[in-house]
């Protein structure tokens, strides 16, 4: 199985420094962005309120979450087709990750998030976006040494 923290299929992700303990994860969507917080010690994630905004309004809410949680790094779920091929939402999520890096000057790790929403819905999630962000973050945390 490939490393879930790969920013793209051809370039390995930089290692996550051991002193990075707290993370904020995002399940990017055009209208809604799921959010979860978590830490390396417990290797678990907690859903946060989903951001229901676009453009600058979305980034204002992201900034408020970063101020509140003070994460060491950010994690973004990147969707792919079942066969691993990229699609329009893949590129949109990667663009969102680049924008986070540029705006907030924090490390951003990308995680292959195929099936996270399906898993969240199968688990009976009330807020599938926040539950997906938890699944993405917990997958990332499990990949850490």
Report on the structure:
- Its main location: cytoplasm.
- It comes from Variovorax ginsengisoli.
- Its EC number is 3.1.-.-.
- This protein has a 5-stranded mixed β-sheet, sandwiched between helices.
- It has a single domain, classed as Nucleotidyltransferase, domain 5, CATH 3.30.420.
- Helix 3 packs across helix 4 (128-142).
- It has helices at residues 55-69, 88-104, 116-122, 128-142; strands spanning 22-27, 33-39, 44-51, 73-78, 108-112.
- It is built from 4 helices and 5 strands; from the N terminus they run βββαβαβαα.
- The longest helix has 17 residues, at 88-104.
- The protein is globular, with a radius of gyration of 14 Å.
- Strand 2 and strand 3 (44-51) form a beta hairpin.
- With 145 residues, it is an alpha/beta fold.
**So how many helices?**
4
**Strand portion:** 15-25%
SSE order, one letter for each helix or strand: EEEHEHEHH
* CATH H-level superfamily: YqgF/RNase H-like domain
| Biggest β-sheet description | 5 strands, mixed
Q: What helical percentage do the residues reach?
A: 25-40%
CATH architecture call: 2-Layer Sandwich
What gyration radius follows from the Cα positions, in whole Å? 14 Å
Distance between the termini: 16 Å
Strand tally:
5
Can you tell me the number of structural domains? 1
CATH secondary-structure class:
Alpha Beta
- Described by the principal axes of the CA atoms, the overall outline is globular
- Average pLDDT works out at 90
CATH topology-level name: Nucleotidyltransferase, domain 5
Please give the order of strands in the largest beta sheet.
Answer: 3-2-1-4-5
Q: Structural class from helices and strands?
A: alpha/beta
Low-confidence stretches: 1-12
Protein name: Putative pre-16S rRNA nuclease
Keywords: Cytoplasm, Hydrolase, Nuclease, Ribosome biogenesis
EC number: 3.1.-.-
Subcellular location: Cytoplasm
């Amino acid at each position: 199985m490939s490393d879930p923290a790969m920013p793209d299929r051809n370039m390995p992700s930089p290692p996550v420094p051991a002193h990075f303990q707290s993370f904020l994860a995002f399940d990017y969507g055009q209208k809604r962005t799921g959010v979860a917080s978590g830490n390396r010690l417990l290797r678990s994630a907690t859903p946060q309120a989903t951001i229901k905004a676009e453009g600058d309004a979305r980034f204002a809410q992201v900034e408020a979450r970063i101020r509140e949680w003070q994460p060491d790094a950010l994690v973004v779920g990147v969707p792919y087709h079942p066969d691993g091929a990229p699609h329009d939402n893949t590129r949109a999520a990667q663009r969102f990750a680049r924008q986070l890096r540029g705006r907030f000057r924090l490390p951003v790790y990308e995680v292959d998030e195929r099936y996270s929403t399906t898993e969240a819905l199968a688990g009976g999630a009330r807020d599938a976006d926040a539950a997906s962000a938890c699944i993405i973050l917990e997958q990332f945390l499990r990949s850490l040494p």
